[in-house]
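Subject: complex prediction, re-run

Hi both,

The earlier run crashed halfway through, so I resubmitted it with identical inputs.
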Amino acid sequence: MPPAIKPQSTPPLLALHGVGKAFPNGTLALANLDFDVRAGEFLSLLGPSGCGKSTALRIIGRLNLPSQGDVEWPAATMAADQTNRIGFVFQEPTLMPWANVFDNAALPLVLKGMPAEIIAKRVTPALDRVGLAKFAHVFPRELSGGMRMRVSIARALVTEPQLLLMDEPFAALDEITRFKLNNDLLQVWQATGTTVVFVTHSVFESVYLSSRILVLTARPGRVSAELAIEAPYPRDQNFRTSADYAAYCRRASTALAQAMSEDKPAGDQA
Amino acid sequence: MSTPQTSQERRDRALRIALPILLFAVLLLIWEAIMRINHIPPYVLPGPGLILATLVDDWELLSQSLLVTLATTVEGFLLAAFGGVGLAVLFNQSRMLEYSLYPYAVILQVTPIVAIAPLLLIYLPQPLAVLACAWIVAFFPVLANTTLGLHSVDRNLSDLFTLYGASRRQVLWHLKLPSALPYILGGLRIAGGLSLIGAVVAEIAAGSAGAGSGLAYRIAESGYRLNIPRMFAALLLLSVAGIAIFYLLSFVNHLALRRWHESALEREA
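This time it finished cleanly. Structure:
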């Protein structure tokens, strides 16, 4: 399926070449993973639990090193000051319980040793963007799960990242909260123009959010199918209930089922 | 959350304070009654009234001894606190140092202080030996707890610090020490009581040397003189000092953690 949102001619933001990852306990998480991430796109990695999609994300974020292959960053701007340009949102909010919302969101800037005035100038809009401006001095334990995740997203946004890596960030949230955060995330993505790589095991979530979906096989993870979701943004409740959406979901589900049956003996399809 | 629950909790708390006090008063009355009915002489067992009277009469002597013992306890505690936390941080930064020194810290801990005290008294001047005892006993819980705390950092938070290129010092100040704070405070709470015990043990051991003037020394001395009421009075002061130290440290613990840590939250709810 060649059609994609961005023309292929623009150089990718980054490219994975034959990336494999074996853990010391012998688990082969990834094998021969090849894909590009294009500037400005919303890319989802869709796959069953334990297919190594989180590992792929961690390799892109340089939290893990690949056992084979490499990650190439063609654009010179990224390579220069990479750590500043990547935001990471984990599956759990991963907040510091001893710090209030503001200090949590400010962490990346504090670690860079920025002066307090500049930090305030950048943290306040980031909190505003996720709807938490009024909660700057509240501690994480006083917030709901959805609000904690918003803090986590605000923290990832304060560095104005070129690339936002998200590892099943909404998996633990209830459906209503998840839908709300999906919409908010799309708004943030469009407003900031950042590139998002989003890991999920939810077909519906990936179709709703993404401009492109890569379906991964079960362990070891490889790209099994690519789906471009060409529905226009901004997407909202109308898209969620449209026939287009249902059709895309069906295609993604089929691709996922196909991916899961590829390496396994028959009868293992969930 | 709801009003009836809070009023129930308040009654619960009031009972928790009132019941032990009430029981204490009743026991004192029974004690005093038995003394009077059976005509037990005070050199065998003094009644609570006499103990209180002795406390007032000997206040000048006993309060000075109390100050001596408390000073030793506080110094031993502070040395243990800074030494324990400092060494744990060093261990955390250098694995080699931890491997080399940790076994010795354990040896220091498992060797009974009563057995070490006489030796220390031979090699060190008496006040220093007493202080060393207080420090040795109080030191290990701080070291062990802080070590545990520094290792109990949330993995994802640790990854996050890596991602944002935090330096070792930043990781220590912004991540490891705050994560370890509840553990450190727990260690300090134990250390406060132990420091008092160490000081008392050393004073008792030094008792025969005669130079001491702490509360434990008063107990030993009164024992030789069969001044039983003063023994009890000194013991009462030691006990009160121990309780005060415990609650003071619990209060500090509460102040430091009340905004965020699970252990401190229930009381507020």
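The radius of gyration of chain B is 23 Å.

- K.
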